[in-house]
Design goal:
The complex is a heterodimer of chains A (116) and B (114).
Chain A (H helix, E strand, L loop, with lengths): L2 E3 L4 E5 L4 E3 L2 E3 L5 E8 L5 E8 L7 E2 L2 E6 L4 E6 L8 E9 L8 E2 L3 E6 L1
Parallel strand pairs in A: 2-12
Antiparallel strand pairs in A: 1-4, 3-9, 5-6, 5-10, 7-8, 8-9, 10-11, 10-12
Chain B lengths: L4 E3 L2 E4 L5 E6 L6 E7 L5 E8 L2 E5 L7 E4 L6 E5 L8 E8 L8 E2 L3 E5 L1
The chains are: A mainly beta (116), B mainly beta (114).
Chain lengths: 116, 114
């Protein structure tokens, strides 16, 4: 069964710095897709970035990038030049590609606080 | 990004009553989902729906739960009868496809069962 684990409950950083949030996953599927979402204070869930398991190159979108370490089943989210408005809960999620399951399974989330 | 609309944003009902949560998915999306989030916790998968059928459901999707999307209108989650433990925020999502296709979420319906 697939599983996603985020061990960091909360992180605080000063704005304009770089932060990394950890995520490890478990799957038996050879093909899978990894997603990061953020949930704002209002509850809105926003898609940020995706990594396909068969791609070696780390995905990058704006000031979000991923550190994909397949042998360690790890997909870290890196936010550079953090801003106050990046404060949110960040969820890692995984979806298998060939098992027949369409479920997007979420981790427990990491609360990021960006301070001035 | 694509918008999923959920109506209402907040619903308060008495235990034992029926409730229907409505979702207007992204117009060209074909796959629909419901997730449940209890305050401060992760989002948990309830059910996914495609081509008029439930494709997968979790243990959280109790017999009192049902979903449908009649004639391409709202994708609905009905709970009948409700229980206290059904109090949570319910998120609807939709996607164009499966696999690598991104799920887009609505802003949630906060359900309070008294």
């Amino acid at each position: 069964a697939q599983k996603v684990t985020q061990t960091q409950t909360s992180i605080s950083v000063v704005e304009k710095t770089t932060v990394t949030m950890d995520c490890v996953y478990e799957t038996r599927d050879s093909s899978y897709f990894l997603f990061w979402y953020k949930q704002t204070a209002s509850g809105e869930i926003v898609f940020l970035i995706r990594q396909d398991s068969y791609k070696k190159e780390n995905a990058t979108v704006g000031h979000y990038s991923l550190n994909f370490q397949k042998p360690k089943s790890s997909i870290g989210l890196i936010i550079t030049a953090t801003q106050i408005e990046d404060s949110a809960v960040y969820f890692c999620a995984m979806r298998e590609g060939s098992s027949g399951s369409w479920q997007l399974i979420f981790g427990s989330g990491t609360q990021l606080t960006v301070m001035p | 990004g694509p918008k999923v609309l959920q109506i209402p944003s907040h619903q308060i009902i008495d235990m034992g009553q029926m409730v229907t949560l409505n979702c207007d998915p992204v117009s060209n999306h074909l796959y629909f989902y419901w997730y449940k989030q209890i305050l401060g916790q992760q989002m948990e998968f309830l059910v996914n729906f495609y081509n008029g059928k439930v494709m997968e459901k979790s243990k959280l999707f109790k017999d009192q739960f049902s979903v449908e999307r009649p004639d391409g209108s709202y994708f609905t989650l009905k709970i009948q009868p409700t229980a206290l433990e059904d109090s949570a925020v319910y998120f609807c999502a939709s996607s164009l496809g499966w696999g690598r296709e991104t799920l887009y979420f609505g802003s949630g319906t906060r359900l309070t069962v008294l």
